[in-house]
Design brief:
This protein has 454 residues and is of the alpha/beta class. The protein is built from 13 helices and 25 strands.
Length: 454
């Protein structure tokens, strides 16, 4: 006799089979009520701890920060990827998360600022990204001078936005086991899982963000990641964290590059201790449209053969003397520019293409001299924020962050605006086919980057 199964049973079987074929990994976003709570310390400690366990872990960073991503690279051994809903579309963020998650055992996304802090209320916030990607949120709470009062704080973050799932919390600056017991009681009464804590520890201080990417800094960060990992292993229940944050990976359509974009371009990218602030996906985009060669303005005397040269931001002021002394490369770059070569220079890259860079003591070092201006670190004052503008019918979005300023009277070739479309005084400069400015541009979704130079 032929045995038939019910339609409902068939669909249940089919659904279970589909679920078996889908990959399940641990995936979560580390958030906090505010900056300074310890998100980066916890993230680096967990990344290194999971790596030490032999797991493949993929880091992500909410927002436009290109320094934290380098910390992630160091701690995890994988390239960290920015997820930003101002710089890019929702589809692009989904695509990136799917692309980089699929080959890993765990994914850790470090949030930006406070959980709900965005460029306009909660637009672009960590919470919006967690909701978009449907990944659990783990809070990091600064528990210094706090005990059971953590309960209403956690309750508010858990209930405020229904599209996210705040599943657990890690406490920072905890004084003792008894202190942690009060905090755990608060968690249980709110319905959030206590996952452990970081004790007060003077060694748990992330190295300065302005050390430069030198070998010394690499050692500092590596040591810090190891210290953080050992403390995380001792005081955080990593197994519980991994089990509570398991998700099924979704699929995403592959990103399409303009079919008419050239695939045989020769692209040169400046990359060394002085120039290294670049978005990973921007470089991946360049690899799709051409052959990418990296060179060092610190040590190389000649340019690679190129159709397009990219000078990213970095710390040129820390290497001003060495950069200034490399006169052969200055001449090669200037000749390339005079002959109509395409160059894009951002922030530190623009400083390098200026006439000189003055350090914080006012000592000037001659540079490439394409733009007749002085870049100065004197009287340092931070300037930062999202930027957007149009140029050659291309809508461009990016981010500005620097302590230097430019002394010149050159006019901008376009008006830039902040995230709320208020005009800002940030300039975009052009000389022949050299375009430069303080804005770090995100071009991974552009149809054709070289239309910028029309």
């Amino acid at each position: 006799m032929v045995k038939f199964i019910s339609l409902m049973a068939f669909y249940t079987f089919a659904e279970n089979k589909t679920r078996l074929l889908m990959k399940v990994i641990s995936s979560f976003l580390i958030a906090a009520p505010s900056s300074g709570s310890g998100k980066t310390t916890v993230t680096l400690g967990l990344l290194r701890a999971l790596k030490n366990r032999g797991l493949k872990v993929q880091p992500f960073k909410c927002g436009p920060d290109y320094i934290d991503t380098k910390y992630h690279d160091m701690a995890s051994g994988n390239k960290s990827v920015n997820l930003d809903l101002f710089l890019s579309s929702e589809n692009h963020v989904r695509y990136l998360y799917s692309k980089y998650s699929s080959e890993n055992d765990a994914c850790i996304t470090e949030g930006v600022m406070g959980l709900f802090d965005g460029y306009d209320k909660m637009k672009g916030s960590s919470a919006e990204i967690a909701g978009l990607l449907d990944i659990p949120v783990v809070m990091v709470i600064n528990a210094k001078s706090m005990a059971y009062s953590a309960a209403p704080l956690l309750y508010g973050f858990k209930k405020f936005y229904e599209k996210i799932n705040v599943i657990g919390v890690i406490f920072n600056y905890v004084g003792s086991e008894s202190h942690y017991k009060f905090l755990s009681d608060a968690c249980h009464d709110v319905g959030i899982v206590p996952l452990g804590y970081l004790p007060k520890n003077e060694n748990l201080s992330v190295p300065s963000r302005h050390l430069g990417l030198s070998i010394d800094r690499d050692f500092l960060l590596d040591d810090f990641a190891n210290i953080a990992a050992s403390i995380v292993e001792k005081h955080i229940d990593i197994d519980k964290l991994l089990s509570y944050t398991q998700v099924e990976l979704g699929n995403s359509e592959p990103q399409r590059i303009n079919e008419h974009a050239s695939r045989d371009l020769k692209i040169a990218v400046a990359a060394d201790e002085a120039f290294n602030f670049m978005y990973h996906e921007n470089i991946e985009y360049l690899r799709k449209i051409g052959e990418v060669t990296f060179f060092s303005p610190l040590t190389d005397k000649y340019l690679p053969k190129s159709d397009f040269i990219y000078f990213p931001g970095g710390y040129p002021e820390l290497y001003a003397k060495q950069l200034s002394e490399n006169k052969l490369l200055h001449k090669a770059i200037k000749d390339y520019a005079e002959n109509g070569g395409n160059i894009l220079a951002e922030c530190g890259g623009m400083m390098y293409l200026s006439s000189s860079i003055a350090d914080k003591d006012g000592i000037e070092y001659p540079m490439v001299d394409i733009f007749k201006q002085k870049a100065s670190m004197e009287n340092m004052k931070v300037k930062l924020g999202y930027r957007q503008f149009e140029y050659n019918s291309i809508t461009v979005r990016g981010h500005e962050f620097h302590y230097s300023h430019i002394e010149n009277n050159m006019e901008s070739i376009t008006q830039q605006y902040n995230a709320k479309e208020v005009p800002v005084d940030t300039k975009l400069l052009r000389y022949k086919n050299v375009i430069a400015g303080y804005t770090h541009i995100y071009w991974a979704e552009m149809e054709n980057l070289l239309h910028f130079f029309k």
